[in-house]
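TEACHING EXERCISE
Course module: macromolecular assemblies
Task: Read the component lines below, then compare them to the predicted structure of the full complex.
Student: A.B.
Group: 4
Components provided:
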Amino acid sequence: MKITKELLQQYELGQCSPEEERAVRLWLDSDSWEDEVFDESLVKDSLGREIWSKISPPDVVSTKILLPQVSEGGFWVCIRPWFSVAALLILSIGLSWFFYANKQDYHFESKNTDAGLKWMRKNCFDLALSENSSANINLRSGNLLLSGGMILKPKCDMVLHDRQNNIALDFREGEIYFISRDPDTSRLIVLRRSELSFLPPIIQRQLKKQFHIT
Amino acid sequence: MQFFVTFSVRFFAAVLGLVCLYFLSACQPPKDSKTYFPADFNPAYSLYLIYEDGEMGFLVADSLWQKSYTVPVPYPQFTREFIHRKGFFYHVNPQNNYLIQSKLSPEGLRSLDSIPLVNNNIESFAWKNDTDTLLLLNVQKGGPDSCWFYEIDTKPFALVRKQHVPIPSAVEDYNLLSIGLSRFQHNELWIAYTYSKFVGMHDYTTVDTMYYATFDFQTLTQKKIQKDSRSAYPGGINTVQSYDMELKNGDYYFMSCPGIALGNAPDMPTAVFRRENGQDMVDTQYMLNISEHIGNHAYGLWQVADNQVVIRSERKDKYDDFANHHAVYQFDYYLVDLIKESLEHLDLPLDKGTRKENVLVRDGKMYIGIDDEQNRHLVWQYEISTGKISPVFESVKNTSYILRIDWLGMD
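Instructor-supplied answer key:
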């Protein structure tokens, strides 16, 4: 049986008789079909396009677009904008962290409503709030707001202002300070640990209880 | 094979080296054998200091105040509230409430023994006559205030007795009990006490009555009670400062401290009172009104001669409140003749530091440790016979306060 393009089309469309089908299969399995059918003159461009469109999935097309660019060294050109975006992103995150951390460093605000001391560690000082106390410290303006009591362990020398009484307080690195606001007089009592023993015994006992000192 | 031999030789050399190193380090003296003064140095006086950095420690000097050495505190919780007698130190470690007996040696203050107490605030101590028996009184806090008594034989260091003292925990709404004085005499324990109450977060006041109670020493049952409304807050905590003394004839004198550093009832006068030998009551006719004489309150009284004491008084024009009371230079010293009831101001620089045991009388001389405005920390010598005053010793440069002067001798 002569294998023609029409027969092949019919085979493809499943319109062949069992006899024609067997013949096409035999032909396909043989080694001689190239010469006979794939003669350029016998296959029209439209048919080629039609077959190609059937066998080529769309993602292969996109790969075909990209691959030549990779091979040409255009990869870097392609991701350069992403680099810029990433750099910008890192820069903005870094800057905001820096400013946030810096703000955290010079500004401190906390409250303790629990029983016992609440310890906090900062770059410039360690601080323990006694119960029912709140503190607000701004190292940039040097303002100290306190209600209740706190233990302050400065890690550098600092001056804080008690605006309520218009008093500047010197704090030295390495010392331990017991600071207490008298709610009746709003007076701020600031004592170094070694100075506690100078207080009247009754006040001493009360402060030791407030700050859980043995 | 050659590699194996070389490796073995190197391995054994390394092991040998390590063994040598171990023996070398074992031959080094152990760390705790550090000495603070030479073995041939005899410490006669000790100063107890607060340094500029807030740390505390001892400075020991020889009997001529010529050589001195610093000695650290034996443990971080050590405070100035120690008792010293004949070379032995007694202090309650506030961390575990143990009374610790220590002795000074070139290696520092070494703990020898300990006894557990109810709590850490010794309010008053006394020696049972001139024996080695130490009598302690403290006030247990937590519930209603209660007074506890401890009898301790210091040789050997053993608790003989621990007993509750039947002192009421409060009078009216004054619910803070303070023991101000204690004295053993004629098999009786005499205790002066008072009550305070809070009138604000950091403000309190003391009742305008001083209580003197006499207890049978064995049973601690109360035999007598005397109420005295001439002043407030008799005595103070005598591990911090002295407030009483006894004349050769057995008459006993003590001072009340109603000023802001103790009683905080400043309208009452600071005064010296007397209990004559053989009398079981405080003399209601005798009252040396210190406040009337000097216009200020005083804290601390030390015997200088038989009828003479020195007192340490504040200057109300110098301080604002108790928060800066210790830091301003305000303390004066007055010689007081108890019989003539006269006061003489001593020509000394103004001192700082609320309540200090910085006066010591020995061999006809009085030594006073003063922290003055020129940031000098000098021990001044007052010759009792001539009245001549001169500095005899300068403390180390980084001193902030001379809190105590103690005689370390065995007498």
